[in-house]
Design goal:
Belongs to the CheB family. The chain has about 350 residues and is an alpha/beta fold. The chain is elongated and about 60 Å long.
Length: about 350
């Protein structure tokens, strides 16, 4: 048998330490080797216990989580999953932590056993497993009809147009590691680039904070999408947490539509939903990129775009934090190009101008 994933839980709340320890300990391939109530204790236990993954509270006494994370990534880089409160400050600090090198984050457990703790447990275990393997950054016959899959409930399939107009758009999907990957792409785009629509797996409350940070750090106007927003050049529209983002035609214009239909591939927003809507509304007026992320959301949508002639990009394995979504898209034959992250923006611009 392979060795279990060794986890150190760092949180100032004894109750949260207990809950996280019990959840992670229920997984047969994970072992919680210790806990710590603050960064000073954590520093000593990292030395003595040599964990594979750290769960780290965002806000703690004696030394805040960001200061500790900054020192950790400089002196002893290791996979870190942040545990964040559902507050504006918690969201902002968590996004800073992802910039510093944290692999992913979960929100604080609500302790609502009957309704949410089961789903929370699955999310936490999945993210710790993913973090343990993450890269730290320093036909001739008549074919049967394609099987229906969950995105069909939100955006029913129909023939997509191959038209070309002067109104172009770029669609981007991402998950684990995506907040930083998307930022790198957006920072390389000019202020007058075609409109960009983004589905990033992110919970409510965090998507607006992330959009605001991107608005400050790039030359583009970045906003959390609202229902009815018109797509215009130089603007970026990010799917709000817990909402699917779709692009639809309104006469000669493209507009954003939000939906709280059922999650697709366990996600809302779903990349597949966004990509399918872009396919139906824009056809080959669009180009698309699927970046780093755990799972397969967006892989089928990217293939559907590719199959009608849309230029599609999958991020390469070497620059992905987790090569799940783009790797699956490549397996399905959905990528026109497989590129390192630094080349994605340029390739999207070239495709949008051709």
């Amino acid at each position: 048998m392979s060795r279990k994933i060794r986890v150190l839980v760092v949180d100032d709340s004894a109750l949260v330490r207990k809950v996280l320890t019990e959840i992670l300990g229920s997984a047969p391939d994970i072992e919680v080797v210790g806990t710590a109530q603050d960064p000073y204790v954590a520093r000593e236990r990292i030395k003595s216990l040599d964990p594979d993954v750290l769960t780290l509270d965002v806000e703690m006494p004696r030394m805040d989580g960001l200061t500790f994370l900054r020192n950790l990534m400089r002196l002893r880089p290791m996979p870190v999953v942040m545990v964040s409160s559902l507050t504006a400050r918690g969201a902002d600090v968590t996004l800073q932590a992802l910039e510093l090198g944290a692999v992913d984050f979960v929100t604080k457990p609500t302790l609502d056993v009957s309704r949410t703790l089961g789903e929370y447990s699955r999310e936490l275990i999945d993210k710790v497993r993913m973090a343990a393997g993450a890269r730290l950054r320093s036909p001739a016959r008549l074919a049967a009809p394609p099987p229906k899959y969950s995105v069909d409930e939100v955006v029913p399939p129909r023939p997509a147009g191959r038209w070309r107009t002067t109104d172009r758009m770029m669609a981007i999907g991402a998950s684990t590691g995506g907040t930083e990957a998307v930022k790198e792409v957006l920072m390389a785009l000019p202020a007058d680039c075609p409109a960009v629509v983004i589905a990033q797996h992110i919970p409510p409350g965090f998507s607006k904070a992330w959009a605001d940070r991107m608005d400050r750090q790039t030359r583009l106007v970045v906003r959390e999408a609202e229902d009815g927003d018109r797509l215009v050049n130089g603007h970026v529209f990010i799917a709000p947490g817990d909402h699917h983002l779709l692009v639809v035609r309104d006469g000669a214009r493209y507009v954003c539509r939000l939906s709280q239909a059922e999650p697709v591939n366990r996600h809302r927003p779903s990349v597949d939903v966004l990509f399918r809507s872009v396919l139906q509304s824009a056809g080959t007026n669009a180009c698309a990129a699927l970046l780093t992320g755990m799972g397969a959301d967006g892989a089928q949508g990217l293939k559907e775009l590719h199959d009608v002639g849309v230029f599609t990009i999958a991020q390469d394995e070497a620059t992905s934090v987790v090569w799940g979504m783009p790797g699956e898209a490549i397996k399905r034959g959905g990528a026109s190009a497989v590129l390192p992250l630094r080349e994605v923006a340029g390739a999207l611009l070239k495709a949008a101008s051709s």
